[in-house]
Design brief:
Blueprint: H1 2-24, H2 32-37, E1 42-44, E2 52-54, H3 73-97, E3 103-106, H4 111-115, E4 122-126, E5 129-130, H5 134-143, E6 148-155, E7 159-166, E8 180-182, H6 193-206, H7 216-231, H8 250-317
Helix pairs in contact: 1-8, 3-6, 3-7
Length: 318
């Protein structure tokens, strides 16, 4: 009986400890420091291209406690991609600012193609704004969004041409949908407000549904905070002309963050199942101990009753 009681108390203690582990189990969201540790990213010192080192976790700005405020899923996703857009433009700015507005290619069926823009054209003006770089072109379109924009071009280095770009569906023309591509590195992009909204919608459609509903809000807010911290990196920090082909880009960070969230949710469920299975073993042990204790108690009562009965009979005979 004592053994059964000891087994019962031991199983109860283990079950209490295991239940506490289950209560404390949670999904740990990924951090920007982890991403930086997994990449080879150039960090530029003193705004030069000669003195570089690898970006370290300690280089990533922290957020003040009062800046880490949980918002709704939709709001978190929208803000995340706004921060990403600002960062991409900041990152690509040094490249696009020195990229001349020579048209490398024109997308078939785009407003530029319909207007008659051809590869090799040099863009001189967007409306009345003088254009001196690819960045200048994107900013000019974004400054006054319209479904119709006039262009002045230099063709064959001698002919000045005036054209009008019109969007057939009457939506605003921007750097992403005008159809003009400049001779800039593929990693250099200019993200408009419309692009930001499009990327946010794509994230909602393609990535967010893959995350268990219990963690969607946490994942979206984690993404927003990472994007905000990324955007706080100074313009001179990321070296767009560094020797390493690996740079911080939104698409890479987004893919990494999503993969890590899914992995950690899987780890959570794996650990939960392990704890629940352990609890089941403890409960079985407790059940066996209870049965053993009850049986021992019954045997003890029967033995005590027989002892008492025998004593009584012996007393009557005397």
């Amino acid at each position: 009986m004592l053994f059964s009681l000891a087994t019962l108390l031991g199983a109860a203690g283990e079950l209490s400890s295991s239940s506490s582990d289950l209560k404390n189990l949670k999904v740990v969201m990924p951090s920007l420091e982890e991403y930086v540790n997994s990449q080879a990213i150039d960090y530029r010192l003193n705004n030069t291209t000669l003195n570089t080192r690898r970006l370290k976790p300690s280089d990533i700005p922290k957020l003040a406690d009062d800046a880490v405020v949980t918002v709704s899923v939709d709001d978190a996703v929208n803000r995340a991609f706004q921060y990403f857009a600002e960062f991409e433009n900041k990152r690509s700015g040094p490249i696009l600012t020195v990229t001349t507005p020579n048209v490398e290619s024109v997308e078939p069926g785009s407003p530029a193609d319909i207007a008659g823009v051809k590869p090799g054209d040099l863009i001189l003006f967007v409306s009345s704004i003088k254009i001196e770089s690819a960045m200048g072109y994107y900013q000019a379109l974004n400054e006054k969004l319209s479904s119709e924009t006039s262009l002045k071009l230099l063709r064959n280095k001698q002919n000045n041409i005036s054209l009008a770009m019109k969007n057939p569906n009457r939506t605003s023309i921007n750097g992403s949908n005008s159809g003009i591509k400049f001779a800039a590195p593929p990693e250099a992009v200019y993200v408009t407000e419309l692009d930001s909204k499009r990327m946010a919608d794509q994230y909602r459609r393609e990535m967010l549904p893959a995350i268990s509903i219990d963690w969607r809000s946490e994942a979206a807010n984690n993404l927003m905070q990472s994007a905000k911290r990324l955007n706080l990196i100074a313009k001179a920090v990321i070296d767009p002309t560094g020797s390493s082909p690996s740079k911080i880009q939104t698409k890479d960070l987004l893919s990494w963050q999503h993969k890590k969230v899914l992995e950690r949710i899987d780890v959570y469920f794996s650990q939960r199942r392990k704890i629940e299975n352990t609890n089941a073993v403890y409960l079985t042990g407790m059940g066996d101990a209870v049965v053993g204790f009850v049986c021992s108690l019954i045997i003890f009562i029967i033995a005590a009753a027989l002892f008492w009965y025998q004593r009584r009979i012996a007393g009557n005979k005397s």
